[in-house]
Amino acid sequence: MTWSVQSVSNGCFGRTTIAHHYFLLYYYEADEVRIITYTYMKHSDRNTSPTSNIGEAKRSKPYETVSQNWLHAPTNNSSSTASPDNATNHSFISTMKNIRAEHLEQLRDELESLSHDSSAHTDLELDSYLKFQKNVSSAAKALVASTDWKRRNPVNIADVSCFYRAPPGGRSEPPGCLVCLEDMKGNVARDVEGRPIIRMMGMVFGSEEELKQQIAYALQRAACYRLPHHRPGEVCFVTEVWDRETNSLSPTFRFPDAAVRSLFDFMKYYYPGSQFSVLHFCGVPSFVAGFFKMVKPFLGEEMFGRLKFKSNYVHLKRDGHVTPDNLLPHWDKEGAFEFDLDQYVEWREHNKKKCEI
Q1: 155 and 125 Cβ atoms separated by less than 8 Å
Q2: Cα–Cα distance measured from residue 347 to residue 357, given in angstroms and rounded to the nearest whole number
Q3: Residue 34 CB coordination number (10 Å)
Q4: What does the alpha-carbon distance between residue 126 and residue 52 come to, in Å, rounded to a whole number?
Q5: Per the CATH hierarchy, to which homologous superfamily does domain 157-350 belong?
Q6: What pairs with residue 299 in β-bridges?
Q7: Are 273 and 237 in contact (CB under 8 A)?
Q8: What is the DSSP letter of 284?
Q9: Distance (Å, rounded) from C-alpha 210 to C-alpha 204?
Q10: Domain boundaries, given as residue ranges, for the chain
């Protein structure tokens, strides 16, 4: 990930004359700048340079989006701060956009030096690789390796259909799988931001290779419906933690084993855009809530910050994440999106060559 650090005091760059000092950590994303502000210490107590103890800085605010017209100044409950002037802000935004453009150009040049056609990738896709690799060279190698792996390991419905079928014993659906909610008419269920919705029942299971095939196929199907302003792999996951057929915790739900932890790394390396997905874990009982804090080291800061843990599905509609026409009936009484897994498998088997790459 490409980070830059800027010393900020009183909401303005470079001043060091007030009581509280801040660090502004930022990175670029499309035409916006994402920032995190950190409170360092009272200026009167500061005995070293601001950048020398960056690891000791205390996080004071979550991510916030900086618009083209205004850069929000850091805030602190114990002091008031002024906003930087527009000239400073526009200069900052312009500088960040120029840095981003330079890195993208460097990455395209690096890809061409590796005999890889950079024109096959959008800026957003390239930017995703830059964010999770330490430098341009590593990003180029990761992108080439990812493209090569997808070419050598094509996945179609035949590879995952066994996980979409209900097992013997009276269940109507499998206890653990993930599937892109396609309407089988040329569209897909989406959240309000337009991200394709991937439904996950319990947790995926199988061998390490089978787990990769399952996530690759679901993301591959979602990619057919990606909107231009979204990153490849960026979706909305809705996970059903509570099994509605047994009215208990899903039998496939478990603490991430080695195969699942490897899957997290696989997604970050081969589908870095997936790290910008939103994840709704629904039906989370109170005694399981603490479990999710334990997966943070495996998921990474970026994806973990996008997780939402809820005891039911109410928030999906109430908080404006998904409209009723994109909700399954068992997620909400007004849910109007009908989906049948058996019909889906048959449809995909009949159309398995359509948009498979």
Answers
A1: no
A2: 17
A3: 14
A4: 32
A5: CRAL-TRIO lipid binding domain (3.40.525.10)
A6: none
A7: no
A8: -
A9: 9
A10: 4-84, 91-152, 157-350
pTM: 0.73
DSSP H or E segment with residue 240: strand 236-240
Residue 8 and residue 74 in contact, taking contact as beta carbons nearer than 8 Å = yes
d(CA 317, CA 321): 6
Asked whether the beta carbons of 110 and 140 are under 8 A apart, the reply is yes
Integer CA distances (angstroms), 314 to 47, 277, 323, 331, in order: 51, 20, 12, 8
**285: its two tokens:** 């009982």
For residue 255, the one-letter residue type is F
Residues 6+ apart with CB under 8 A from 294: 255
Written as one letter, the residue type at 135 is N
Neighbours of 86 (CB within 10 A): 11
* Beta strands at 307-310 and 278-282: parallel, antiparallel or unpaired: parallel
* R_g (Cα) of the chain, nearest Å: 23
Name the burial class of residue 48, with classes exposed (0-12), middle (13-18) and buried (19+) by CB atoms within 10 angstroms of its CB: exposed
Please say whether the beta carbons of 19 and 9 come within 8 A.
no
pLDDT digits (tens, 9 = 90+) for 26-57: 444 444 444 433 333 333 333 333 333 333 33
Segment (H or E) for 36? strand 32-42
Q: Which amino acid is at 227?
A: L
* 57 CB-contact burial (10 Å; exposed 0-12 / middle 13-18 / buried 19+): buried
Hey, which bits of the chain come out as E strands? 4-9, 12-13, 20-29, 32-42, 58-59, 64-66, 177-180, 197-201, 236-240, 242-243, 248-249, 278-282, 307-310
Q: What is the pLDDT of residues 87-145, one digit of tens each?
A: 656 676 677 778 888 999 999 999 999 999 999 999 999 999 999 898 999 999 999 99
Cα–Cα distance measured from residue 165 to residue 117, given in angstroms and rounded to the nearest whole number: 39
At a CB cut-off of 8 Å and minimum separation 6, what does 122 contact?
Answer: 232
Nearest alpha carbon to residue 337 among 252, 268, 236, 264:
236
